[in-house]
Structures are given as structure tokens and as C-alpha cells.
Amino acid sequence: MRSSVPERVEQGGSDALRDPLRSSGRPLVVDVDEVMVPGSAFPAGIASELSRRVLAVAAAIATAFGPDARSTHVAVSSGFDSSRAQFDRDTVTFLLQVLGEGRPVYLCSEIHPEPFVSAVAQHLGVFTAWAAAPAGRSPAVRSEDLPPVLRQGFDYIGSATVALPDFASRVGRPGRSEPAAPVRAGVQSWLKLLRVHQYAKNALVLVPLLTAHKFAPGSAATSLFAVIAFSLCASAAYILNDILDIRADRAHPAKRSRPIASGVIAAPRAAGAMALALTAAFAIALSISAAFAGVLLGYFALTTSYSLWLKRIAIVDVVVLATLYTVRVIGGAVAISVPMSEWLLAFSLFIFMSLALVKRHVELAGQPDGAVLAARGYRVEDKSMIAILAAASGFNAVVIFTLYISSDTVRALYSHPQLLWACCPILMYWIGRVMLFAQRGLIDDDPVMFALRDRASWIALGAIGVIMLAAI
pLDDT tier at 467 (50, 70, 90 boundaries)? Predict the structure, then answer.
């Protein structure tokens, strides 16, 4: 349940925002998303949602290469239906209180077009004026029509920095008393947009190289190029997801600082970077083999489907995440032309299914009782079942590993296959530890990234590596 606006504003730390009576006529600017209940004014049909998102991406890519790409923002509206729209009562009540004290109240948005903002403002009837960021046309409210006091500073309720039409300054975050200057995107912002810190996940492409004992320099070099191709393709997929989820990210306590959601990098510029990353990824993939390029294309198609639709279907979302991790392993095998082991395929699906379920469990554990995980199809009361499924998937992976040890495949690859049994208790310990830490709230978001930062996980991985080398 959303907290009341006075409480939300008080967290900003500004006396003027804590109490509207202390602001002495100071104007209040409100982001349109703050008065809307998320999703209440958008179509429920899957086909409508899918088409809207596809049009949004197409518009972003088209404008990225236009002359006004620097100032154009993605703003594709599904229309406003007052019969289906829901509004945050606490926000509207607070705005009425502010308006009653003689303070002007303005509604603004940089991601919604002017007709949508205007329809919301006229329906509520509590705003002095409203404006949408320019998108190749004149805004609804010109800068000269706005009160001069707005240029001197204003209070703001919203989850991100937003641009007002025809203003060089930007509206500050809650708690700021003066408008802030636009933030230039530096190298750090672009690296964050590309999710370079997530590239470690693509080391899974190297797994077939190790399990098939293909240690020749040529195979190693091909595998490294395959890792680069997957990393660039993954970056393109991350950017696409950020463009599609810009509204949801701005309402998220952590994701609101992402470059696109925070406004540091405009969506059209991000779309341009996405196109470049995707082009480079497939150029490298084709230089390896057409078969590998096909695997990479399948990966991008699946991750795009996940961003557009599949992540909103409970359980299907975690199955897709597990599959995306497994496709990296398949891609590694195809790149160096070795058969994909059925044992490795089964182990990968179960272990990554476990980690995907842990990720959902962590997200649900961070929600208040009775809440619904936004756009995910889960409820907080589902977390106990999610934990059971995660543990079951993880220990099933161990069972598959034990069966693999007894197979003819292992006897052909290892001189001392019995040593591999020592890997089982290490795997059991690691899976149990991840589950325990998730239950205690010690894993903040992604269990894969947690493992990459966790010293015990690295020790466990090193021990398994030593055992496997000794068994060869």
C-alpha cells in the first residue's frame, strides 16, 4: 500500500515540503505518475500492451538518429479512460490541501504526451496548469505563461528528475529547494546503462570449453569472442528493458537511479546505443559461425519477449530466466563446435531455475504484507512456495550431477571420476547457504551477482575446479 503524500514528502528532508503552510505561496510541481495508481489508465489486453510497447521502442530508435534526438523523449500514450483510471487518494487530498492554502499546483510529465497529461489534469480539476515535455511540438503551457515565481524555485513531488517545457533548469528531487542544472552523462553513466557489471554472467559461455576439456588457444579465443558477443547483446537487451520500464523504474527505490529513469541519458540516445551494441554483437557472432549467430538471435528474441510480456506471467518468468542462462551455455558449445552434453543442459536448467526463484523470493520478501509484486503476477504470500520451489530445483541439480558422475560420458573424460563425488557436498552447502541468506534478507537482489561478490562462493567454486582438475 502506498504511503500518504505528507509522509512521502517528509522523507525528502525539506521544511517547506513537510508542511505546506510554511511554504508561503511557493508553487508545487507534481509528476503525473504520482497521482495515478500504476497501470490504472492502460489497457489490460496483452495484444494492446504489446503493440504499445513495440511502438514505443520503434519511436525511440527512429528519433535516436533524428536532428532532435538530444531533446526528444519516448512518449507513446495508450489514451486516458477516466472510467478505468484510479488515483492515489492521499496524493489528491494533499494537493487539495495545498491548493486551499493559496499555493499554485502544476502537473508535469516528460514521458507522457500532452493530451494524456491534460486529460488527467482536467479530470481531477486540482491543478493550476499542466505541461508535458516537448516532443517535436509546442508544449501545452509555454514558459512565459507560467508564473515567474516558478523560475525562482519550487517544491516537487515525484520519483525522478523531469524536464519542464522550455526551461533550461530541471525540477529538483523531493527535498531540493532550488532547480538543479541538467546532469551530463559521463563514462560511468554509460557503463551503468550497458550494465557492464553484469558481464560476469556471460562467463557461462566458457563452461563447455572447460567441461569438454578444449584448452587449445584457438578454442579459447573463440570462446572469449563469444563472451563479448553475448555481453554486447545482453547490453542491448538491458537498454531495451530500461526504455520499456521507465515508469516502473522511476517508482522503484533503487532502479530510479538508472541512467534512463533518472534522466541522465535520454531514451532516444539510449536507443541509439542499443542499436550499436546489437550491430557489434551480431558482427562478432557471424565471424564465429552462422550457427552461433542463430543462437544469439534466439537469445535476443527470448529476452525481448521477456521484457515485453513474459516477465508478467508468474512462474513463466523464472522459467524464461533459467532458459536465458542456459542459452549462454548452449552458445558456448556451439561456438567451439562441441556437442552439448545432455547432463550439462539438465544441470544448467535446474540450477538456474533455483537462482531465478531465489531472485523472486528476495523481491517478494522486500514487499509489505498483502502487496502484489508490480507487473510480476506474484503476491507476498507466495514467497514460502517460491522458497520451496527454489530449494527443490537446486537440490535436483545436485541429483543430476550425481547421475552424471556415474555415466559413461564421465569415464571417457576423467581418469579418476570417483573424485567428482567430492563436488556434491560443496554444491549442497552452496545451495543451502544461498537459500538461508535469502531467507534472512542478506541477498539484496540478484543471487548471481551476490555469488560473484561472495567470498565463500568463490572458495566453493575454486574447490570444485581443483577437484575436477585432479579427476582428469
Answer: very high
Quick one: which H or E segment has residue 188?
helix 187-194
Cell of residue 302, nine digits? 527470448
Query: SS3 for 324?
Result: helix
Asked whether the beta carbons of 205 and 335 are under 8 A apart, the reply is yes
List residues bridging with 28 in a β-sheet. 105, 155
Interatomic CA distance for residues 272 and 265, integer angstroms:
11
Q: How far apart are CA 468 and CA 417, in angstroms?
A: 9
Q: For 231-257, how does the pLDDT look when each residue is reduced to its tens digit (9 = 90+)? A: 999 999 989 888 887 776 666 666 777
User: Which comes out higher in pLDDT, residue 161 or 17?
Assistant: 161
Work out the percent of the chain whose per-residue pLDDT is above 90: 27
Give the three cell numbers for residue 454. Answer: 561472495
Full DSSP string of 388-399: HHHHHHHHHHHH
Measured CA to CA, the distance from residue 401 to residue 411 in angstroms comes to: 14
- CA-to-CA distance for 404 and 343, rounded, in angstroms? 6
DSSP string, 221-252: HHHHHHHHHHHHHHHHHHHHHHHHTHHHHHTS
Contact 264, 189 (CB under 8 A): yes
C-alpha radius of gyration, the chain, whole number: 25
| Dist CA 209 CA 468 (whole Å) | 14
Strand, helix or coil at 66? Answer: coil
pLDDT bracket for residue 20 (50, 70, 90)? very low
pTM above 0.70, yes or no: no
| Nearest Cα to Cα of residue 63 among 279, 308, 280, 275 | 275
Q: Is 187 exposed, middle or buried (0-12, 13-18, 19+ CB in 10 A)?
A: exposed
Which of 325, 308, 328, 306 has its CA nearest to residue 317?
306
